[in-house]
Structures are given as structure tokens and as C-alpha cells.
Amino acid sequence: MKFSLLISCAPQLSEMHHNALSFAQAVLDSGHTLESVFFWGEGTSTALKTSVSPRDEHDAATLWRDIAALGGTDLNVCIASATRRGILNKSEAKRHDLPDATVASGFNIVGLGALIEAELSADRVVRF
User: Is 78 in the active site?
Assistant: First the structure.
């Protein structure tokens, strides 16, 4: 079965984000496919390159990159939500006269079309 996830909760503010990570790992452990994870709204803060987790907590971006590497999963970030939170790729940073991108490695800043494509190709879409 092919799954896609929609993450709209911030990793540092919600147990739901941890549940999403656990669900994604369970999907892969069960032999299913995790095609796409789409970060939207507050969930886009996962992709902020300058975010630092306390030493006693796991770094959500690293955990998502690990899941993506295991499953060949796209980690997509909504461009509108990301821009509002200062998460920019190189072209957006240049457009806003900023010196560097702020999106963490492994994450792709995309439009809503990527979410629609993920929903159409997946057997199940799960929102956290």
C-alpha cells in the first residue's frame, strides 16, 4: 500500500508530530511505501535549517531525513507556509535579498501541486 502524509503540526509543540514519525516508521517497517511527506502550516518549521533541538530531544529534521532515506520518500514543504516562517530555498532567498537559504538539507520547497499529486498517487493520505 502507498501512503502519503500531511504534517501540519510543529515538532516542538505537539506530541502529534512524534506520532507522525512513529507512523511513518511503522509504514516502512510493515513493507508499505511512504511516497511523500508534505509539511504545511506550522509543520514547515521542521525544515528550518537553523532549528536546534535540546540535547535530550531528538532532532525532527534528522529523523525525517532518515525515514526519507529508508523509503525513498520526498520531504516536501509548502512554499507559502515556509516563506511566512522564514524558510527559504536559494531562489527565494535571492528574491528576498537574503544571503542564504534557510531550508534544511533533504527538504524540497514546493507548491500545493505536489500535495495534490501525492494525494492522487497514494492509496491512503494520513494527516497529523
Answer: yes
pLDDT score, position 121: 96
pTM of the model as a whole: 0.92
Q: CB–CB of 83/47 below 8 Å? A: no
Strand order in the sheet with 74-78: 108-110, 74-78, 33-39, 2-7, 124-127
Residues 6+ apart with CB under 8 A from 79: 92, 109, 110, 111
Range(s) of the domain holding residue 67: 2-127
Q: Kindly name the residue from 78, 109, 115, 118 that is annotated as catalytic.
A: 78
Report d(CA 38, CA 77) in Å as an integer. 6
Q: How many domains does the chain have?
A: 1
